[in-house]
Amino acid sequence: SSDKTYSTMVDSESSPVKDFFRGANVLITGATGFLGMALIEKLLRVIPDIGNVYVLIRPKKGMTASERIEELVKNPVYEKLKEMRGVDIFQKLVAVAGDVGEENLGLSPSDRKLLIDNINIVFHSAATLDFEATLKPTVSINLLGTRRVVQLCKDISRLKALVHVSSAYVNSNRIGEAEELIYPPPEDAEKVIGLAASLSDAAIEELTP
Known about the structure:
The chain crosses the membrane at residues 20-40. This protein is α/β, with parallel strands linked by helices. The protein contains nine helices and five strands.
């Protein structure tokens, strides 16, 4: 009926949302963040017949990508999922070593081919939320990182959807209500990318408000 909410549509036995994801292979960036963890939990709990969920994740602090996934699923957010589906549901999680801040997403040739050949849906939610970060790393992750994901998606042979998750602060400089609109950026993205690439950190610091 017309009064069905998104939640009831997803949680029902049969729904267009479930049909869309059934058997699909999903790639998630930013999986260790708040939204990324919740997304993994929701997909595996509500759509157990989803394909594999590939997680782009950096090796960090001496841990491999696979080891970081093993730590990730110990988070309490996954307790309900474990109770409903059992721990075997995590076999659908596939760790892919990579970094949106690196060229070609830091992917090995074999992993890039793995994604190109298998992925159907991409959720790009990786971003730096460090408001004190300098321009160079912010541009590399938030701007160029998104471009790198789009470039990968252009090569994926059976892509059904790319979902880009922006920061809640994307329109934080607006006074009053921020509507659900795409506002003109304060600066041209290509110009900002060029400045970050060509200027020194000291020069950028002088230009930064």
